[in-house]
Amino acid sequence: MGWTSADAQESDETSLIVTVVREEEIELPVPPVVSYMGATRIAATPLVYWAASPYAVSYTFERSSSRTGQYAVAARLGKGATTWRDRAAAGTSQTNWYRVVSTSALGLTSVTAPQRAWASGFAHRLEGDIIGTEGSWHDQGNTKEKLFDGNTSTFFDAPDASAWGGFDLGTVGWRVISQIRYWPRDSWSDRMVNSRFHVSSVADFSTRKTVATISSKPPQKAWTTIAPAFTDTWRYVRWYADSGNGNAAEIEFTGFDGVPSAPSSLNADTNTAMCAVLTWPDVANASGYLVWTNGVECAFVATNAAMCARSARAHTTFGVSAVNGSAQSDLISRELPPAPPPPFILFFR
Would the pLDDT of 327 be above 50? Predict the structure, then answer.
């Protein structure tokens, strides 16, 4: 911040006239990074939806075949857009990576972290309440929580030879496990041999299914990635070791959200002549909702209400489906008659 003054001018009355201009920096708003983005497939075409970013007047979608590869522009969309179909990827089995650039009116931008859209939508790292064997060897603090702390230098070392650690993923929105990664404890990777990954619908794992087994010594100081053998949804996941005191540094589960329930009803307030205000009950395991007009998605909303334009010439069918990061519910719809014409006002003189 600084001050500058114009040339002083002395009048006949020896008074001094000074013009002062104040210089200060003005911080221009940068559009925040899109706070939520999900994806599903509609008729074999990836459909991406997102929460609008304040100050953004346009969105640029970039696509790559790998997370760290070169990204190319796939689409440019305007301010009001909150959905996009990647028709270029329709019918393909390739799993693309996407990122979104939000741009303000002044050209300032923000970029999301890349997200991978599988055939089932966006996969993400799964987390929940940590469950498993309590305690640590000689109470040294190397508990089951170390398996999921994101630090490959820490490790789980249980008090007993047989041990396990995992997640309760919650009562709603059970998950499909798409990928498992693990990192062994330094110099003790042999202790993971013959350990197994289980999924279950109950907390005691009495209904467990083995989705993967570590059959050989994993490499040191490296991630090993495996694909599980089941694609159903589950609430409980774990890594289980018969021996070796549960020695491992990191366990990571990646997966998709289960299909959310559909809204139980759809109400329409038509008091506004050319618009319909749609409302519906919240869905517990939904991250947001897609709003449809005559079979075409027109918006993503995070709340259970939306205002939509009505046709004045024909019936309009509105629909709502619940969505999360990976899946879409069945559609609930309602047909409305044409919007009434605007009132006709006569003037008399």
Answer: yes
For 196-253, how does the pLDDT look when each residue is reduced to its tens digit (9 = 90+)? 999 999 999 999 999 999 999 999 999 999 988 666 888 999 999 999 899 999 999 9
Q: Which residue matches tokens 């309602």?
A: 334
Q: Which of 269, 250, 267, 275 is nearest to 332 (CA)?
A: 267
Burial (CB count within 10 angstroms: exposed 0-12, middle 13-18, buried 19+), residue 305: middle
Q: Kindly state whether residues 215 and 104 are assigned to the same domain.
A: no
Total domains in the chain come to 3
User: Are 210 and 280 in the same domain?
Assistant: no
- Residue 243: give the domain boundaries: 125-257
Written as one letter, the residue type at 133 is T
Task: CATH number of the domain at 332, please.
Answer: 2.60.40.10
pLDDT higher than threshold 90 for residue 344: no
Gyration radius of the chain's alpha carbons: 28
Q: Which residues of 8-39 are buried (b: 16+ CB within 10 A; e: fewer)?
A: eeeeeeeeeeeeeeeeeeeeeebbebbeebbb
